[in-house]
Amino acid sequence: MLTKILRCAALALCLTGAVEAQEGFQSPSIVILGDSQIPFGSGPVFLEFFENIKTHCPPSPQQAKNLAVLADMKVAVIGVRSTSLHSWTATMGKAKGAICDVDPKWKVNAGTYGFINTTGNKYKQIGRGDAYQFCEMDKSAFQVMFRPDYYDPKLILLSFLGNSAKRWANQYEKAVEDVRKMNAQLPAGVPCIFMTTAPSYSKKITDLRVKAQANLKRAFVETGSTCSFVEGATPETVAANQGNKHYFRVNKAGKVKDPYHPNTKAAKNFFMIAMDDICTAVYDQIGAAMPDS
């Protein structure tokens, strides 16, 4: 018991503190959650794309009517380093710690953009601040985040792959397990899109992720998930990123030093290539949420 109390105090995860911290919190309409690709390059692109969804995805008259489900179109983008889908559904252990523990080197573990970021500093620590209270004892981040008095989005987009590449590529049953937990913990009836992250610089890394993506897509079908699934790794996106050092960070000698995280230039191109698939997913999801559409 003493250990639990000390852990709760150290990480600011106590239920009372979390509730008090959200007094007056207003939920964004569109919530985008992902891994470290967001703070390393794609965060601003996600934000711009969804804030200007009507420009990027010109709607038909019926689709324009359906957009009303997104209300005020306030967009929140959150990317937490070293996380994947199962980090958000875990109630304890290393997976949950990836979200809730303070990074020992950088002291913050997330990059955030949009409606929830009021300070202008994109780097945040999950568990600190009204908009980031996702950590409570014996509960998952999804369970805390989507409780009735907190986040109430009209569209959820999840973007993960790399940190679970081996897990999903080598163990299909783990992909099924992760999707089942996601299905159970996301708020019922809320439009949802799952989009795997952009390809890496390395063929070896990308090949593993493509295999993981195939297993994950199959798991979405097997579990009957109502989320739309968008493949981030396609022949077109792989051709654009793989071996293209202009889309990745390089050292002074001009060699790629980070093959995992495409830069913002790469993210813009990725969205251009994937735009039709993203737009289709958005309108499919919000259309399904509108009974008269």
Question: What does this protein structure show overall?
Answer:
The protein has 293 residues and is an alpha/beta fold. It is 46% helix and 12% strand. The protein contains 13 helices and 9 strands. The strands form 2 sheets. It has a 7-stranded mixed beta sheet, with helices on one face. Helix 3 crosses helix 13 (264-289). It is globular and about 55 Å long. Mean pLDDT is 92; it is low at 1-21.
Helix and strand layout, with pairings?
Layout: H1 2-11, H2 15-21, E1 30-34, H3 37-51, H4 53-56, H5 61-66, E2 75-80, H6 85-89, H7 93-100, E3 110-114, E4 123-124, H8 141-145, E5 155-159, H9 165-170, H10 172-185, E6 192-195, H11 203-223, E7 228-230, H12 235-241, E8 249-250, E9 256-258, H13 264-289
Parallel strand pairs: 1-2, 1-5, 5-6, 6-7
Antiparallel strand pairs: 2-3, 3-4, 8-9
Helix pairs in contact: 3-13, 10-11, 12-13
What features would you highlight for this structure?
293 residues, alpha/beta, 7-stranded mixed beta sheet, two-stranded antiparallel ribbon, 13 helices, 9 strands, disordered N terminus
The topology string of helices and strands comes to: HHEHHHEHHEEHEHHEHEHEEH
Number of helices in the DSSP assignment: 13
Instruction: Outline the biggest β-sheet.
Output: 7 strands, mixed
Low-pLDDT ranges: 1-21
Distance between the termini: 53 Å
Whole-number radius of gyration? Answer: 19 Å
Helix/strand-derived category reads alpha/beta
The overall pLDDT, averaged over residues, is 92
